[in-house]
Amino acid sequence: MSTHNKCIRSAFLGALMALLPFAPANAAEETINLLTQNFPPFSMAVDGKNFAREDAISGIDAEVVAALFKRADVPYAMTLRFPWSRLQQLAEKTPGFAVFSLSRTPEREPRYKWVGPLSEIQIVLLKTPGSPIQVSSLDDARQYRIGSKDGSVGSQYLINRGIEVQSSLIDTPAKLKAGQFDLWATTNPSGEYEAKQAGVGPLAVALTLSRVDLYLAMNKETPDAVVEKLQRTLDQMKQEGLLRQTARRYVN
Questions:
Q1: If you average pLDDT over every residue of the chain, what do you get?
Q2: Alpha-carbon dihedral sign for residues 37, 38, 40, 44
Q3: Which residues contact 221 (CB under 8 A, 6 or more apart)?
Q4: Over 50: is that where the pLDDT of 23 sits?
Q5: pLDDT digits (tens, 9 = 90+) for 215-240
Q6: What's the whole-model pTM score?
Q7: Are strands 112-127 and 183-188 parallel, antiparallel or unpaired?
Q8: Is the separation of the CB atoms in 171 and 149 below 8 Å?
Q9: Measured between alpha carbons, how far is residue 175 from residues 35, 78, 109, 189, 217 in Å?
Q10: Omega of the bond prior to 41 within 30 degrees of 0, cis?
Q11: Other CB atoms closer than 10 Å to residue 179's CB: what's the count?
Q12: Which residue from 122, 180, 121 is spatially nearest to 147, judged by alpha carbons?
């Protein structure tokens, strides 16, 4: 990366951090700054915008994570922003930060400390219902224009397999409907949910690529005792059925 690009990235992260509720890492009881994106139905701004804090954030994982930190008695502040790739960088590089909902891929494994899983998603290629496209493998999909969100698990899945992806900062099924690309690499149930909310759906699944668990990814400087307490608390919440109950409120 050039010096110029490094300066731009540093300036961006600095500006982003200035907008976030931040507690110093050496505080007596460290506040964990939780970052997430618009990723319905797992996390989303109540007003549909790309910035929200605390109670203005809803969704399956947002509710679960908030309840988790309250039950574990770990101070937190929750912020929804974009772009997703920058939030991941901030959580990776800055003590006192964490990001959710993130897939735990081999590439990301050493970059964070992990708590989860919170939810499961399916990585899919979606198409418009009237599309004649028929694909039974990734090789079949190579001939088509595939769009995806920059930094998303769907995008990374395809890029890692040598498939070209048209990336954008904001994923919208309207682009698929308008013919800007042929297939949308996204995840379900979030893709179908987003299409429904945008008045574009329903869309059709052209190909299911993989099933992936979503996690809370914490900066590696987070004390092990905090990570372990959160994991124990989440496991207890699962045993009580609280995660299933939360999911049912958003997905039928």
A1: 88
A2: positive
A3: 25, 95, 96
A4: no
A5: 999 999 999 999 999 999 999 999 99
A6: 0.72
A7: antiparallel
A8: yes
A9: 26, 30, 32, 18, 30
A10: yes
A11: 10
A12: 180
Residue 193 φ then ψ, to 5°? -65, -45
What local confidence, expressed as pLDDT, does residue 27 receive? 42
Token code pair at residue 55: 């109670």
Instruction: Please report where in the chains the tokens 């994991």 appear, as a residue.
Output: 231
32 contact partners, CB below 8 Å, separation of at least 6: 69, 74, 75, 76, 77, 96, 97, 98, 218, 222, 226
β partners of residue 52: 80
Residues 6+ apart with CB under 8 A from 72: 229, 230, 233
Residues in the chain: 252
Cα–Cα dist 76/49, whole Å:
22
Contacts of 118 by beta carbon, 8 Å cutoff, 6+ apart: 42, 60, 61, 64, 65, 100, 101, 213, 214, 215, 216, 234, 243
Torsion angle of the four alpha carbons 24, 29, 35, 36, in this order, in degrees rounded to the nearest 10:
-170
Residue 93 token pair: 């590089």
